[in-house]
Write a structure and sequence with these properties.
Layout: E1 5-9, H1 11-17, H2 21-36, E2 46-51, E3 54-63, E4 68-77, E5 88-96, E6 102-107, H3 109-127, E7 134-138, H4 142-154, E8 160-164, H5 168-182, E9 185-188, H6 192-196, E10 201-204, E11 226-229, H7 238-243, E12 246-249, H8 252-258, E13 272-273, H9 274-278, E14 292-295, H10 300-317, E15 321-324
Parallel strand pairs: 1-6, 7-8, 7-10, 8-9, 10-11, 11-14, 12-13, 12-14
Antiparallel strand pairs: 1-15, 2-3, 3-4, 4-5, 5-6
Helix pairs in contact: 2-3, 2-10, 3-4, 3-10
């Protein structure tokens, strides 16, 4: 067999390609559908936590419809923002679905940020009440910004964000920047309870640490609300999860696996996976007044479908560095 090359894409390469949020949402919806139909292969993520403030994880999957397989190795550190570094960092290896050969190694920071917000947007498309105009964002970092971008694609009538962050300076900066960039009203709230009040969609994006004090309680849930946690159950008290009419996740096996690391030890039964809803195998929202909670843990199929689109765009534009293997 002759020599072949792998395309290395730095963080700058990936970001400057400019793959738009609508395309990422499309890729993530494909990922959910393929998983729901049973066409993708994906074990639960491999999770290593040497301390409460840092974790490492390996995430792998094969998505034949995307003509690709992939493995993402990443870490999350609660101390990184204080050093001017992203909370999540990592690398993704992408393999071609036809030959099995590795075709790309890319920084996964941008991919993770975009596909996470896109997953919430797809979840909201199927589980939220139509015409959301106000949502609550708990956590005003990278995900706070990406979620505004993603949810505006799904809900073009979005006009208000009720925001909260444990860091008052981060909250003030978020309110100013998001308001100026998107022309939205951003209400900087002094507490999580105030942010959640009156929002039909609630997204929590705090740090992922097993022993953080949970905040959102059962009496915070209003009729018709959709709550989406991308920080595991770190913002959600067990009573709040049990008070929901329906409880969804993006992967049952992963949810169960994470109990070993201190998450979701007291949770209700899973109604269905998001992929089952997208694939038409399970109902999503059936009544306007249903209270629904979805725990999006972040799954590899989202990375692979998004990374394949990044790679194809990079090839078309001649971006990246070709390295011999």
């Amino acid at each position: 067999m002759g020599d072949w090359q792998v395309r290395y894409l730095s963080r700058r390469d990936v970001e400057e390609l400019g793959l738009g949020m609508p395309a990422v949402i499309e890729a993530v919806e494909e990922a959910f559908r393929e998983k729901g139909l049973g066409h993708a292969l994906m074990p639960a993520k491999h999770w290593l936590a040497p301390s409460e403030r840092r974790f490492y994880s390996a995430m792998t999957s094969v998505v034949p419809a995307a003509r690709a397989a992939g493995c993402k190795w990443q870490s999350g550190s609660s101390d990184n923002p204080a050093h001017g570094l992203p909370y999540l960092t990592g690398l993704l290896i992408l393999n071609d679905g036809e030959t099995g050969l590795p075709i790309a190694v890319m920084d996964s920071t941008w991919v993770t940020a975009m596909r996470t917000a896109a997953a919430t947007a797809v979840t909201a498309r199927y589980l939220a009440r139509p015409g959301v105009d106000t949502f609550a964002m708990l956590g005003c970092g990278v995900q706070g910004r990406r979620h505004v971008e993603a949810l505006r694609v799904i809900f073009p009538g979005l006009r208000r964000v009720r925001a909260y962050d444990v860091n008052p300076e981060a909250l003030s900066r978020y309110a100013r920047e998001v308001g100026e960039r998107h022309g939205l009203e951003v209400v900087a709230c002094p507490s999580p309870r105030e942010a959640v009040r009156g929002a039909s969609l609630v997204v929590t994006a705090g740090p992922i640490e097993p022993n953080l004090p949970r905040t959102i309680d059962a009496d915070w849930l209003e009729p018709g609300m959709l709550g989406v946690g991308i920080d595991y159950d770190c913002y959600w008290r067990p009573a709040a999860l049990r008070a929901a009419d329906k409880f969804f996740t993006d992967d049952r096996a992963q949810l169960e696996h994470l109990r070993e690391s201190g998450y979701f030890r007291d949770r209700p039964p899973v109604t269905a996976e998001i992929g089952d809803v997208v694939a038409g195998k399970a109902p999503g929202r059936e009544r306007a007044d249903e209270v629904i909670v979805a725990m999006n843990l972040g799954v590899s199929v989202e990375d692979v479908t998004t990374a394949r689109r990044v790679y194809d765009l990079a090839v078309a534009r001649g971006r990246g560095t070709l390295l011999p293997l």
